[in-house]
Structure formats: structure tokens, C-alpha cells
Amino acid sequence: MKAVVQWQGEACYEGQTESGHNVLMDGPPDHGGQNRGPRPMETLLLGVGGCSSFDVVHILKKSRQDVTDCRCELTAERVDEVPAVFSKIHLHFIVSGNNLKENQVKRAVELSAEKYCSASIMLGRAGVEITHSYTIEA
């Protein structure tokens, strides 16, 4: 996997993935940015949510669950020193579908957390406390 990050001036950077997708990252005005895109750490947090959400939906579909929606709400805390790394991340999944079985949703979230989500497992190994919860909506 490869990516390129190119400085765009001031506190703005454009990232391009190997698959050809671009992401604009920018800093806040008090750090020379113009707030034109997410901060790099926000992008990292989105990556954790995207990676885990992909797993949860994929596992549920393989379990023949009729998933119609999945939203992952993330909250994170960072340490109060430099580097301001994440200390805690919580992922809360809101899963919707037809006749979803709670044990299947619980299993999908657990499998993502413990076995499949490369992003959250990597951060967990680095000392970030990562927790998960879920709600099923009809």
C-alpha cells in the first residue's frame, strides 16, 4: 500500500491514495490553516471507524443478516502533552435492518474488534484504549 501527501501551502496538505482518491487535510486558522479539510488526526479517527464499519457490515452480510444501515459514532480522547496521541477511542455502532439477530450484531462487532480491524488493533497494540458498543434500530 502506498500514498502520497503533498504540501499545498500554509497548513494544507493533499493526500492521494494508491487507489487514486484524494483527501484534503488542513489546520485550524490559529495554526496557519483555513479549515478546508479535516485535521490529520481526525482522518486517522475516520480510518478506524471506516475499517471497523466495513468489517461489521461484511460479517453481518456473510451471516445472512438483512442490514439496511450502519453508522459508527466515534469519540476519542488525546493526551495533554506533545505528541498528543490518542489515549482512548470508543466506537458505537448503530445498525439497522430487517429482523437482525442481536447475537449476530454482537458477534460482528466483537470479531471486528478482536480479529479483523487492522486500524483499531494496531492502535490498541500501541496502547490506545479502544472500546466498542452497539445499538440495533428497526
From TrEMBL:
Residues of the region (Disordered) are 18-37
Q: Its domain of life? A: Bacteria
Kindly give the Pfam families that the UniProt entry links to this protein: OsmC
Q: Which Gene3D superfamilies match?
A: 2.20.25.10, 3.30.300.20
Q: Which InterPro entries match?
A: KH_dom-like_a/b, OsmC/Ohr_fam, OsmC/Ohrsf
Q: What is this protein called?
A: OsmC/Ohr family protein
- Name the source organism: Alcanivorax nanhaiticus
